[in-house]
Amino acid sequence: MSEVAKNPSVAKEEMRADYEKLANVIDLYSGKEGCLIQVLHAAQEIFGYLPFEVQKYVADNMGFSVSYVSSVSSFYSFFSTTPRTKHDVKVCLGTACYVRGGKLLIEKLQEILGIGVGEATADNVFSIHVTRCVGACGLAPVVVVDDDVYKQVKPGDIAGILDQYRGK
Amino acid sequence: MSKVNITINGKPYEAEAGKTILEVARENNIYIPTLCYLEGVNQYGGCRLCMVEVETNGRPMRNLQAACMIKISDGMSIKTNTERVRKARKVNLELLLSCHPKDCLNCNRSLDCELQTLARRMNITERRFEGESKDIPLDISAVMTRDMSKCVNCRRCVAMCNNIQKIGVLNAQKRGFKTIIQPSFGKHIADTDCTNCGQCISVCPVGALRETDAIAPVIAAIEDPKKYVIAQIAPAVRVGIGEPFGMPSGTVATGKMVAALRQLNFDEVFDVNFGADLTIMEEGTEFLQRAKAALTGGEAVLPMMTSCSPGWIKFIEHRYPELLPNLSSCKSPHMMQGAVTKTYYAEKLGKDPKDIYLVSIMPCTAKKFEIIRPEMNENGVRDVDAVLTTRELANMIKQAGIDFVNLPDEDFDPVMGLSTGAADIFGVTGGVMEAALRTVYELVTGREIPSDNLHVHPLGDSDQIKVASLTFENVLPEYKFLEGFTARVAVTSGFDGAAQVMEMVKAGENFQFIEVMGCPGGCIVGGGQPRGVRSEKWAARKAGIYSIDEGKKLRKSHENPDIIKLYKEFLGEPCGHKSHELLHTHYTARGKYNELIGKK
Questions:
Q1: What percentage of chain B's residues is helix, strand, coil (to nearest 5)?
Q2: Ranges of each domain in chain B
Q3: Which of A21, B446, B456, B540 is the residue whose CA sits 20 to 30 A from A77?
Q4: What is the pLDDT of residues B241-298, one digit of tens each?
Q5: Fold of A87-163
Q6: A10 has pLDDT over 80
Q7: What is the nearest CA distance from A158 to chain B, expressed in angstroms?
């Protein structure tokens, strides 16, 4: 919490509670090496995404340069620098899902939602993301919406899956 | 050190344990190609051009190994020149080239490009792989031009910026083919806390990083009949400029450089050494004034810190704005000389200062930013109009077809051409401090500084942080306050050292005077100097600079007769009214993210 006090310019008033949470996470990992990825994960949980201000805060309080922090956050596709939509639709394109038709699922999603990978619908409800192996290869091909996993998905299932989230 | 026995290409060698295959091969004149590796800077095995076959304990390792990463061990057998090795290296290079712009003829690094040299050396004569080309817009600041479509991702600049200078502006963003070396969130380099030191430029093997060209405006000024174009040359340039013409590192080429500038049709050629002597008069006086105030119960900020290095100035403005009052208010030597040129000398010439175009030749890229600082002008006339790096000057000389090596030596023009040895050593870490102490000690005691041939050890050494003490005894009456006082001085170069010294200052360490140069080793290995292995260049160029100093009759700034004349005719006294107007400046608190700019 003391960390927030040290960075009043960074911690905007309305986000104070979020920054306090992040400060606690950083405190937890302080002095341990190789924890940047864990901290960024936690930061993304808290803020929903990793904007420049948040990465700056992580950099300043962990003793890194912000360009180093962004080199890590931009390397992993799980980290996002744009605000989350209401529902994230993630299609696995790991080897197993890929050979079992993951690519067709992406095409179907793009067709139904009218957006590309990494983009969000105009109403900010859905966004499409590609992930590399969610560790459920036996269920391939896999689609993950928010935290729900759909197994052995066929292109024809996509519309039905999306409908479950509309209006939610 | 324990020794191990290895064989390379069937021949036995004894070598120090702990060394890499590449190091041992180079020591024994066995060529292994490298691109990402740079001695003392970068070692990470990324380019895969230094592949070799390795056998340990009689068993061959299955895959080829990167020679820059593998340490030798007893009994190791290495093959650097098999068809398998040559083929693998060649394919790796061809793949690198497959997405590199096909634009060598229009590239400013052509014939000076490590990638091009490797391609020739590996006998690449066709483009077997057609890769996707990168179409990335240029990022141009007043100092540098970043052309990331030419970047080969060797990460030398990243290593320099993060591990050596510890600024961390440049890093590899994104991944895979999309990897791009740039500041976070794709910011322009000019909008970051980059210090403009240019060390990234000096390690770039290709045309991706370069200084922003000032040659065209300089030539335009020379061609303009209304402009009176003056060149002024920094101390470090004279021991670097010979290298692009095949002269050994550290060759003192002062006379040829002056002659070349005259052939380039500069109207006059001055020596920034004159400005360095002037700086010592001002900075030495400022130090004595601060010391007097501090020791006689007045208010003064100590330790005082030197202000000659514009990279260092930008560093402290970003990282330690709270210590800005410690900076000497002196402009850097070439800016001081610029201010004097556009006033005192313009008057002597009978010219409107607007018609004088002053070009500084510098070992430095940060100077390109320094000259556009809003405070660096007199009545709307810029102190200095353009900065050319040593590399740019070499390019101009080549373009003009001047036979540099065989030029007869010429002397600087008078008025601002004469300098003392104290000014020469400004180009090396520890030099500004030594020059200042030579003058301060003599002003205070009336005697020469009691040290080895006027050198103050260990300030000129290559160590990162150097500390020395100097006690003032039997002082002249007007400096009674200094009787018996021991001044502690610190010298550092590079921003890693600078940050450490700033932390020492904040922790209350007792220093009175601190010299900082932004580039590790000082200006002789500045970001605008000819490229090469830093440690070798540093030693040779330092020897060159010291030989100039030691060969001069006058080695203390206050003995320079033209400086004495300048004060008599124009400035009055050091740190007087006129000096403050022309030779001193102020700084801008920026903050790490430029968040302090515009705030009171």
A1: 40, 15, 45
A2: 3-95, 213-600
A3: A21
A4: 999 999 999 999 999 999 999 999 999 999 999 999 999 999 999 999 999 999 998 8
A5: Glutaredoxin (3.40.30)
A6: no
A7: 30
Q: Is the pLDDT of residue B232 over 90?
A: yes
Whole-number mean pLDDT of chain B? Answer: 96
- What does the pLDDT read at residue B486? 96
Nearest CB to A55; choose among B162, B167, B184 = B184
Q: What is the pLDDT of residue A7?
A: 52
Is B439 in contact with B280 (CB distance < 8 Å)? Answer: yes
pLDDT at B1 over 80: no
Contact A71 B173 (CB under 8 A): yes
- pLDDT tens, position by position, A51-88: 999 999 999 999 999 999 999 999 998 898 888 788 98
CB contact under 8 A, A65 and B173: no
Q: In sequence order, which residues have a C-beta less than 8 Å from that of residue B580 and are 6 or more positions away?
A: B329
Q: Do the chains contact at A81 and B595, CB–CB below 8 Å?
A: no
Angstrom CA distances, B549 to B154, B426, B431, B539, B557, stand at 39, 10, 10, 15, 12
How many CB atoms lie under 10 A from the CB of residue A16? Answer: 13
Q: How far is A166 from chain B (nearest CA, A)?
A: 33
Does B131 contact chain A (CB < 8 Å)?
A: no
Looking at the annotation, which residues of B are catalytic?
283, 286, 308, 328, 367, 370, 375, 523
List pLDDT tens digits, range B76-93: 999 999 999 999 999 999
With the C-alpha atoms ordered A112, A114, A119, A125, is the resulting torsion angle positive or negative? negative
| Predicted local distance difference test score (pLDDT) of residue A120 | 87
Sketch the domain layout of chain A as residue ranges.
2-73, 87-163
- ipTM value of the model? 0.92
Which of B162, B172, B168, B163 shows the shortest CA–CA distance to B194?
Answer: B168
Residue of chain A whose Cα is closest to the Cα of B169: A67
Tokens of A36: 């940047």
Helix B272-295 to helix B333-340 angle (10° resolution) is 110
For residue B175, the chain A residues in CB contact (below 8 A) are 74-75
- Give chain A positions within 8 Å (CB) of B596: none
Helix, strand, coil percent values for chain A (each to nearest 5): 50, 10, 40
Q: Is the pLDDT of residue A92 over 90?
A: yes
CB contact under 8 A, A52 and B185: yes
CATH, range B213-600: 3.40.50.1780
- pLDDT above 70 for A4: no
What is the spatial distance between Cα A56 and Cα B351, in angstroms, rounded to a whole number?
A: 52
A interface residues, B as partner, C-beta within 8 Å? 9, 52, 55-56, 60, 64-71, 74-75, 81
Q: Is the minimum CB–CB distance between B172 and chain A shorter than 8 Å?
A: yes
- Residues of chain A in contact with residue B167, where contact means CB-CB under 8 angstroms, are 65
Tell me how far CA of residue A11 lies from CA of A3, A6, A15, A70, B409, in angstroms: 10, 9, 7, 19, 63
B170–A64 CB contact, under 8 Å:
no
Q: Taking the mean position of all CA atoms in its chain, how far away is CA A119?
A: 13
CATH number of B3-95: 3.10.20.740
Model pLDDT, residue A133: 86
Look at B23 and A120; give whichever has higher pLDDT. B23
Residues 541-600 of B with CB under 8 A from A: 592-593, 595
| Window 322-381 of B, Cβ < 8 Å to A | none
